[in-house]
Structures are given as C-alpha cells and as structure tokens.
Amino acid sequence: MFALLLFAGPPATAQDNGQGASFELPDPAVDAILSSNPQTPAAILQATLSLTDLGRPQLARDMFGNLVKLKLNEGQQADLVEAAGSDKMFRLLALDNLGDEARKFASSALAAADKRARDPKRLAKLIELLQSESAETRRSALVDLKEGREAAVAALLAALADDDRAADHPLVASAILSLAPIAAGPIFGALETEQAGFKARVISLVPHVKIPGAAYYLIGPALDESQPDVRAAARRALQRMLGQSPPSKRVVEVLDRHILHLLTSPAPLDVDHAGNVVLWHWDDRKRSLSQQIVAAEKAGALLAARLARHLVALPAEFEGDRIAALAVILEADRVRVGNGAPLPTGPRDALSVAANLASHDIERILVRSMQLELPG
User: Fold this and answer.
1) Which residue, among 322, 352, 194, 189, has the nearest Cα to 255 in the 3D structure?
2) Is this prediction's pTM over 0.90?
3) Are 216 and 258 in contact (CB under 8 A)?
4) Which of 161, 274, 277, 335 would bridge 198 by S-S if both were Cys, CB 3.0 to 4.6 A apart?
C-alpha cells in the first residue's frame, strides 16, 4: 500500500480510520507558509495566493481574513499594490474561492493605487526627478510616470507648455513619447493650442506617435504665415511623415475631401461598449487637457470642424477653401448641439467668424452648409 501511494503522489485528503471524516495530509510547503506567520500586508497577500495555488482554499480564506482584519486605509492599500505588484492584486480579483470580499478588496486597492498614480503633486515631483543627475533616479521616475497613464501625459504636456522650463523641454518631450501609444490622444488634443512656441513643440512630437490622419491637421499650420515657428515645425513634420513640404494646392484639395469624409463616415477612433469615443482638448488659459466623451456618430463632425478651422486661417489665395471651411464648421456645430438648439457663438465658432464677412460670402456659407445634408 505504501508503495502505491508513492507512485500515485500524495493525495490532498485521506479517510480517518473508516469513519468518513476527511483530513488533509501534511504538506511541507503549507507548513512553511503557516509557520512563517506573515504579518505585513504584502506577506499575507502572498501567503493567501500561495495557499490557493497549493489547493488549500480554506486555509487561503483564513489567511485572507487576516488581511481584512488590518482594515487598511486608502494610502495603505496603495502601498500594498506598490509593494506586492498589481499583478497579484489582479490575481486576487480573479479568484473565485475567496468570495466577493476578496474581489471588493482587490478593486478598492487597485483604485487607490490608480488614484495615487494620477495625483498631480506626485506627477509634478516625478517630472522634476527627470532632471536628476542620477540615471537610476531618472529611470525610476519614468517608470512611475507611466503608471499615471493619460494623467501623466497631461502633466508632461503642461510642463512642455511652460516657456520658463525651456531647459526641461527635451527630457519632457522624450518622456511623453515614451508613454506612446497612450500619449497619442493627448498630443492630438494639445494641437489645439494657440500658443506658438508650445504648438511648435507639440507638432514636433506628432511624427513619432500613431495618430490617425495626423498629417491632415498639420497642413493648415504649414500654410499659416502668421506663426513662423509653427509653420516651420509643421513643414518639418510633414516632410518626415509624407516626404513633401510645403503642401501644394492639390494637398489642400485632399484636405477638403478628408473633411467631407469625416462628416459622412465613422471617425477613426476607438469606440467603447456604449458607442462613445474620447476626444481630447487643450485649454491654454488653464494649461491643461480635458476629455470629452461623445457619441461615435457625432465625433466625425467635431473632428471635421476642428480641421476646417485650420482652413479658415489660410491666406487670401485660399478664399474658396475658407468659405467651404466655415460651412463645415457651421454644419458641425449644428450636429454637435442638435437640431433646434442655439449654435455656439465663441470667437472661433462659425457664426462669430462669419459675422465679419460680406453678405454674399455669408450666403455662400449657408448654401454650402445646407448642401452637406448631415444627419443631426
């Protein structure tokens, strides 16, 4: 009988003298875990997972109970995720044998860690550490910044927008690119800035990240003579991306067609389970990014309006394109606010821009807008 047990491997349980009561056979690994008497949250978590792996669910539940008894606050939960690693917390989240309490604990701890990773003060300190003379400190700061995801990109872009931090800009720009592809959306949003120096710096990032249709949004700046630094940066970026700079009249015609494509086709953005997409916007006054959640069917109109605003700023030789662009903005504003609602009258909106045009131009804009026939 003893020989048979050796070949079969040690069973988890055995019968107690034929009475029907089962007991667990000794396991040196289990004994070692229990005798170690783990006290720290990270050690208790590891012991819980190890006991689960060893097929001892009841012992794992008992061990996890010790973690619950510690009543960790938000900061301590974030410390636990940092010490043990988020992968262990995700394992705890997926385990069925520990019940709902374990899932709630794991969700709470991960949320606490995410909140810490996105904390503005923490991000600002990490950005400062990018300037450290220690390569290890810089590397560690960059690793921690990546945990902040879009919030980290937003903080880095704010630093890139600060003209007083010119010495920091090269390392900041490098850090932004290291967060690709997460950085793509925020970079695209930052292109909305009217600050020439910052806009030129953002444009220099564009060729290095994957942004659908990014080249289209550089054509207007490449032709705009009012901001020489922006124009030069856009031309360099287009040369790198497309092999041509400056754009020709033919490229502007392509831009016109792309605007109409955006107005009538699904936007080239990731759609979530609710049918929405995320658009990023830059606020020069606050020097910050914000998210806009919009229905996917309206996103194309918003992108088209943004692109059309570039054409509005074109030189007089592109007057026809400017008129068509204003019509696009007007129609996109209608789609955005919905039929029957008042159109926006901000300084960059179509109604405000058109107010300074001749009456025959306004008529052309209205006719062109009606011809678009977009779904509202």
Assistant:
1) 322
2) no
3) yes
4) 161
Classify the phi-psi angles of 16: left when phi > 0, otherwise alpha if psi is within -120 to 50, otherwise beta.
Answer: beta
Q: How far apart are CA 372 and CA 376, in angstroms?
A: 11
56 within 8 A of 24, measured Cβ to Cβ: yes
Q: How far is CA 48 from the centre of its chain?
A: 33
Buried/exposed code over 21-34 (b: 16+ C-beta within 10 A; e: otherwise): eeeeeebeebeebb
How many angstroms separate the CA atoms of 247 and 255, rounded? 10
pLDDT at residue 226 greater than cutoff 90:
no
Say which amino acid occupies 193: T
343 neighbors 355 (Cβ within 8 angstroms): no
Q: What is the pLDDT of residues 190-222, one digit of tens each?
A: 999 999 999 999 999 999 998 888 888 998 888
DSSP 365: H
Could you tell me the sign of the dihedral formed by the alpha carbons of 230, 231, 232, 234, in that order? positive
φ and ψ at residue 149, rounded to 5 degrees: 50, -130
Extended strands (E) in the chain? 13-15, 22-24, 276-283, 288-295
